Amino acid sequence: MSRAAAGADVPGPLAGLKVVDLSTVFAAPYMCSLLSDLGAEVVKVEPPSKLDQTRGGALAPALGNEGGGDGWNWSGSFHSLNRGKRSLVLDLKQEAGRSVLRRLVDAADLVVENFTPRVLRGWGMTHADLVTTNPGLIMLSNTGYGATGPWSGFKAQGTSLESTMGLVEYSGYPGDKPRKVGQSYPDFLAAWTGLYAILAALQERHRSGRGQWIDLGMYQLGPVVIPEALIAAQAGVRQPSRRGNAEDDTLLSDVFACRGVEAWVAVAIEDDAARERVVGLVREHLSGDAPDLDELARGLGEWTASRTPEEAAETLQGHGVAAAAVAEVRDLLLDPQMQHRQFFDWVDIKGVTRPIPGTPFVWTGSTAVTSRARGPLFGEDNDVVLGSVGLAPEEIETLRRDAVVTDAPLNIPPPRAKDLDALVKAGVYREIATDVDDVLARVRPGADEG
């Protein structure tokens, strides 16, 4: 099935850039998908006996929740994080697999990986090793704590990583325990940081002809987003207390319940002028003409309770107050602003068309930036990629015979369909929507035509 992007006949700004993606999960794969959006040719190298966590497992919600068969090809997360790439399945535990990888790297401009540092050292494939045959090679290594220092060999996972960054201590509610920040927050900080480091390395190579090794430790990204806490610490002030939804630069910031089930509106009253406008708007719900912030919050909550989130947000915005409905994820599919900016990409996955998150910016110019392509099916491009590095058909067949290259996962059972009713009872999901097809039909491109 073709993965050709809309407008693919127009080259992107990174057209001709060859990228080898050895990474898994979120941060580095997303980084490489953005490079693909910009026109780079990205080959994702996958092992035959262990699926990327976004292909299989808890991080791989299957479109349609159908078990059996080739369920590893149906993960929405995988397609979003690996859009536009090619898939080469290669057993790097075998020397023959590493030999193929070296040929691929020798023809590449960039390698992105997130192994623990010992892995590439053990294979003799560090950046220092690889530049002996490809002097202009750029490599980005994305690890939890960096490739050097006493923590370089530590395992990193979302909650533990955020905790060592200082973010978890800074998040939560007064009197309660520290809270995880959110969905893979450090991963996406790493993706965007890595992207600009790669672009800088490309510029340096253009100037000097030399490649670069970018050692990106995600641990160091946390303090970047809490500079006020670091400055306070240098002034002898302990960590700011956990404040829930409150913000330092607003008089009142919180979410308020609205009419409906799990319906909320977020409101930020930034200054005295905004405060007076809100007082005038909700005056009938206040006791007294000069309410303090607690009384204003109570009265505002009474006012929002009789309105939908959208009604409350629109009215507050009309009075010059920052407010927005708290969106459920499915609301994003129906969001008119998202639709206007064509954020979601409708991609064809084996005859089934579904929307996935696309490029997070709009590009206008003579070159194309587009992500209108799905991720690769498992091993879909084996022959094309192997042929591109000069392997003859009989050599490729030998690699298949020795299970160095495979077209399906080895010794991995097909994913099972999830018991959605049980997950609702366990509180993992709130409810099972029965109108998904109707929602998709409403937002499908061209649905309002004719």
SSE layout and pairing:
Layout: E1 18-21, H1 27-37, E2 41-46, H2 76-81, E3 86-89, H3 95-106, E4 110-113, H4 117-123, H5 127-130, E5 138-143, H6 158-165, H7 185-208, E6 213-217, H8 227-234, E7 252-257, E8 264-269, H9 272-281, H10 293-305, H11 309-318, E9 322-325, H12 329-334, H13 336-340, E10 344-349, E11 352-357, H14 382-388, H15 393-401, H16 420-425, H17 436-443
Parallel strand pairs: 1-2, 1-4, 2-3, 4-5, 5-6
Antiparallel strand pairs: 7-8, 8-9, 10-11
Helix pairs in contact: 1-7
In the CATH scheme, what's the topology name of the largest domain? Rossmann fold
Helix/strand/pairing class, anyone? Answer: alpha/beta
Helix amount: 25-40%
Can you identify the CATH superfamily of the largest domain? Crotonobetainyl-coa:carnitine coa-transferase, domain 1
Radius of gyration: 25 Å
Q: Any key phrases for this structure?
A:
450 residues; alpha/beta; Rossmann fold; formyl-coa transferase, domain 3; 2 domains; 6-stranded parallel β-sheet; 3-stranded antiparallel β-sheet
Notes on the protein architecture:
The chain is α/β, with parallel strands linked by helices. Helices cover 34% and strands 13% of the residues. It folds into two domains: 282 residues, Crotonobetainyl-coa:carnitine coa-transferase, domain 1 (Rossmann fold, 3-Layer(aba) Sandwich), CATH 3.40.50.10540; 82 residues, formyl-coa transferase, domain 3 (2-Layer Sandwich). The chain contains 17 helices and eleven strands. A six-stranded parallel β-sheet has the order 3-2-1-4-5-6, with helices on both faces. The chain has a three-stranded antiparallel β-sheet with strand order 7-8-9. The longest helix is centred in the middle third of the chain and has 24 residues. The protein is globular and about 85 Å long. The model has no long low-confidence stretch (mean pLDDT 89).
